[in-house]
Amino acid sequence: MQETASTGAAHGLVVALDGPASSGKSSVGAAAARELGYRFCDTGLLYRAVTWLALDRGIMANDAGALVALVDEIDLVDNGNGRLARVAVDGVDRTEAVRGPQVDIAVSAISGIAELRLALLTRQRRLASQGRIVMAGRDIGTIVLPDADLKLFLDASVEERARRRVLERGIDPASDEAGEIVAELKRRDELDSSRPIAPLRAAENAFVIRTDGNQLDDTVRQVVEAIRKAEAEAEAERVVTAARASGTGPALAAAVPPPGHEAAEPTAEPRRLRTSGPPRAQRRPIRPTPIATHNWWLTKLGTLVLRWIVRAIVRFRVEGDLASLPKSGPMIMAANHASSADPVLIGAFLNQVLGRPLNWLGKRELVEFWLTGWAFRIAGIHPVDRDAADLEAFRTAMRILEAGQVLAVFPEGTRSRDGGLQQVREGVGMLALRSGALVLPVAVIDSDILWPRGRLLPRFGKRVTVRYGTPFSVPDELAKLRAPAKGRQATEAATRLVMTRIAELLPPRQRGVYAADPPLSREGVPAERLQSHGS
Q: Phi, psi at residue 172, to the nearest 5°?
């Protein structure tokens, strides 16, 4: 089961659009997404498709196992405009069938099955994790995407919603059938709002839009304005975050007013934020890289060639019990970064040992150049914007781990100038805590001597060692140490633990700022020494 969608969507907000039946979620959400260049998904189609298939095969609503088994037979298909609006079952378009009146009657009961909602939850989150999407449903902001960037709730009276459905189906408003539609909507509202699993309600921080008396264009305009305002707020926050990270915070923060307000006259010209490329506001969105799940023939060929090259120019040594490394399940490969050669020295060999590919977080500039971008994407490079705190990068990382794959990261973010470990932020610790994935510490020794920063080509004949540690669970280790399990202290402790494990594998000259960094004691405070987990 898979969804096919346009690949032009990359960075952007994740918008949750909820509301009762016939409140206009699908038509409004699709129109707003089209205007903004977002993707659109009506999650109700998934539930309607399962309901139709269950009715077609005579499966009862109380047979949860059989209902869940139907999920893999259903595909949502892009209609060509970025809208996942077509339903296919066994390759046959069933869109019209799933919108029929029999499905109207049965879908609420089917949608209330807890096992079915759980089966569809991961699928919906996977769609949203790519960003730049408007996702419509009845529990998107409350259950499916509680951390959505923007939550909207479309509401209208039952009479207004019934009128729209009557017009949509070309029914005489004075007919008995029209009256049945009103009764059916009232019944569905009662079922949806009172069911124990994911009841219909607006999220606490949702922006409620009443649509009674609105023309479609009016409501679309309100939704578009809300999304654009949220985009502006997010952009302003990113600029301020980037400014603080680069030391220009106070000046730039004063220069960036809240959206919708005029900036005060500055007393002095603020320092400009230095970036390695064009300003963020001028940077076009970049399409995400698909998660690498298999070693395709091109990947195997590429890593084979790289291994030949490494052995030809480097006195290369691998240390550690690689045979015991897990061959499945999510894992974070965290290594020091002293040279441009590091990804090759790790990836070309670890890829072969694990029998599965590595997914790397790399600077977006790597994939922006058309001539080499395709190769980096095949190699599993997922672009990261280094000019700001990139929420999309964190989502991408979590998406990789939730898919049970290997995420390769350099917590330092950029190459060390002297080969020693640099101070890092808490990203790797947060990922390890949030995902629960095993962390594999890796030390690349003397790669800075092989290929120093500023040198065009590597030096031949230098000795380089890649030393692999023992995978460990950050939450389990922190629990043993009685360290905080949540909050900022937990994230800091997790990050320090990961970096300490890497430092233990490195020679003293490369331990950098973590050379004298004491690990945690069992009371959650620095201890004198942490046992080595090196190979």
A: -65, 120
